[in-house]
Write a structure and sequence with these properties.
Number of strands: 11
Distance between the termini: 18 Å
Number of domains: 1
Length: 223
């Protein structure tokens, strides 16, 4: 009798765990953006809120619009040409068509006296991972006056599942080198899909059934 009830407890625990797993947000994904590709990287995302940060384990550390660095100060920054981690996000207005004319460009480290260009890709990644960024809407991103200082992680919210385009904004692309790797992390779960609701209902039904059996079985035995 004891072993049967233990089996029921294990089954109940597994049912609850499966239900909770179904409604929990997905883990972060790494988006690798090749700076030589004008089309960027397109990712299909579920509805919800996401944060974006730099990935230290991605394919890229930083990218250069010139392919080299020069004119840097003694700290290896404020270069005339160098490495950056600026990136852009195009939401395509939910259409899935990306013309790089809407969305936001993130870049230009928001610290006075820092133009966001570094002597090496490693130094650029280290700086961009710890300092706040500026952002501007596209296509005004070419005008530095369009940038507003913001602190904390980059975030965005999708009202429905859609594709999102991550890219670097630079023309031409054929003289670029490197790229940028990003962690795209969901911070809120979306409204559960129909399949998720079905699993939740099944899980809670299983819980209710086990509680019911536990209550009625002693009554039947007493009879």
């Amino acid at each position: 009798m004891k072993s049967i009830w233990l089996t029921k407890k294990v089954t109940l625990a597994l049912t609850i765990a499966a239900t909770l797993a179904a409604i929990s947000p997905a883990s972060a994904i790494i988006v690798n953006v090749d700076a030589t590709n004008p089309n960027g990287t397109i990712v299909q995302l579920a509805a919800g809120t996401y944060t974006v940060s730099y990935a230290t384990t991605g394919a890229y550390q930083a990218w250069s619009p010139w392919g080299f660095s020069s004119g840097c100060d003694g700290s290896g920054m404020n270069c005339q040409s160098g490495f950056t981690n600026a990136f852009a996000i195009d939401f395509g207005l939910g259409s899935g068509v990306f013309n790089h004319a809407d969305g936001f460009q993130y870049g230009f480290v928001a610290v006075p006296g820092n133009n966001g260009l570094y002597d090496t890709a490693a130094n650029a990644l280290a700086a961009y991972s710890t300092l706040p960024l500026s952002y501007a809407p596209l296509p005004q991103a070419y005008d530095q006056n369009a940038y507003a200082l913001v602190g904390g992680p980059v975030s965005f919210t999708l009202a429905a599942p859609q594709s999102v385009n991550f890219f670097v904004l630079d023309y031409p692309y054929n003289d670029n080198s490197g790229g940028v790797s990003l962690n795209v992390t969901p911070v809120t779960s979306a409204v559960p899909e129909p399949s998720t609701w079905a699993m939740m209902i099944l899980g809670f039904s299983g819980v209710g059934f086990m509680v019911y059996r536990r209550k009625v079985k002693p009554a039947l035995m007493a009879a």
